[in-house]
Amino acid sequence: MGRGAAAGALLVALVVLGAPPAAGAEPLIGVFQEMVQSECHFINCTERVRFVKRFIYNREQYVHFDSDVGHFVGDTPYGEEVARYWNSDPEWMEHRRGAVDRHCRHNYELSTPFLMERRVPPTVSISLVPPSSSQPGPGRLLCSVMDFYPAAIQVRWFQGQQELSEHVVATDVVPNGDWTYQLRVLLETPPRRGLSYSCPVEHVSLEQPLSRHWEMPPDAARSKMLTGIGGFVLGLVFLALGLGFYVRKKV
Ligand SMILES: *[C@@H]1O[C@H](CO)[C@@H](O)[C@H](O)[C@H]1NC(C)=O
């Protein structure tokens, strides 16, 4: 693996949904959530690794351990109490400090084949977003880049051979929750007739950029008019032929 950071998180969550009240007790109403989140940050493969463990109650982190710091730090007054209590146990703290090797480095080696080397190529499509009241006109071109892994990706817009670097807006790379990501890149300037547009995608899973092309389909009104003219001309031809036969027969 090259440089760059990769992070893995192991999530252990305990959710108590509207806990049933004990007989005679006041009913507990609401959602109570205790979450413990372990993170391994691989800053340079296994050369530089950071282990962070967060304790979160109802979305609020109250205490955490950071291997760069080496002990628990409270994030709330209650968390400070918890941190003092945990930090005072040397044996358990030794165990915590070992997690960066035991948990992170070990799992990195273990998961390399299916995690670090995981490659899923994107599917790419271009669609025309219909005009809206805020953006009238012929609509806008949207490049949808779906279901790829890992997250790092480059998507550009071209008009013919010329890259369009302005008026291009991209969403964040959105995780789908199934170890794939998606991204959409909108061209804010309306497409012009007769020009070709493309959005080449570069990704580690692809040997060469994957590109889709788009051109404005023929104008419906114009093609109807052309069909009409064609029909009229054809009609004239038959009329002329018919008249020709008629005149010959008479002669
Ligand atoms: C990453 O670690 C390697 C040793 O494995 C070292 O040679 C290299 O300089 C490190 N890279 C960075 C960016 O720190």
Automatic annotation (TrEMBL):
<keyword id="KW-0732">Signal</keyword>
<feature type="transmembrane region" description="Helical">
    <location>
        <begin position="225"/>
        <end position="247"/>
    </location>
</feature>
<dbReference type="InterPro" id="IPR050160">
    <property type="entry name" value="MHC/Immunoglobulin"/>
</dbReference>
<dbReference type="GO" id="GO:0002504">
    <property type="term" value="P:antigen processing and presentation of peptide or polysaccharide antigen via MHC class II"/>
</dbReference>
<dbReference type="InterPro" id="IPR036179">
    <property type="entry name" value="Ig-like_dom_sf"/>
</dbReference>
<feature type="signal peptide">
    <location>
        <begin position="1"/>
        <end position="25"/>
    </location>
</feature>
<feature type="domain" description="Ig-like">
    <location>
        <begin position="122"/>
        <end position="211"/>
    </location>
</feature>
<keyword id="KW-1015">Disulfide bond</keyword>
<keyword id="KW-0812">Transmembrane</keyword>
<dbReference type="InterPro" id="IPR003597">
    <property type="entry name" value="Ig_C1-set"/>
</dbReference>
<dbReference type="InterPro" id="IPR013783">
    <property type="entry name" value="Ig-like_fold"/>
</dbReference>
<dbReference type="InterPro" id="IPR000353">
    <property type="entry name" value="MHC_II_b_N"/>
</dbReference>
<keyword id="KW-0391">Immunity</keyword>
<keyword id="KW-1133">Transmembrane helix</keyword>
<dbReference type="GO" id="GO:0002250">
    <property type="term" value="P:adaptive immune response"/>
</dbReference>
<protein>
    <submittedName>
        <fullName>LOW QUALITY PROTEIN: class II histocompatibility antigen, B-L beta chain-like</fullName>
    </submittedName>
</protein>
<keyword id="KW-0325">Glycoprotein</keyword>
<keyword id="KW-0491">MHC II</keyword>
<dbReference type="InterPro" id="IPR011162">
    <property type="entry name" value="MHC_I/II-like_Ag-recog"/>
</dbReference>
<dbReference type="InterPro" id="IPR014745">
    <property type="entry name" value="MHC_II_a/b_N"/>
</dbReference>
<dbReference type="Pfam" id="PF00969">
    <property type="entry name" value="MHC_II_beta"/>
</dbReference>
<dbReference type="InterPro" id="IPR007110">
    <property type="entry name" value="Ig-like_dom"/>
</dbReference>
<dbReference type="Pfam" id="PF07654">
    <property type="entry name" value="C1-set"/>
</dbReference>
<dbReference type="GO" id="GO:0042613">
    <property type="term" value="C:MHC class II protein complex"/>
</dbReference>
<keyword id="KW-1064">Adaptive immunity</keyword>
<keyword id="KW-0472">Membrane</keyword>
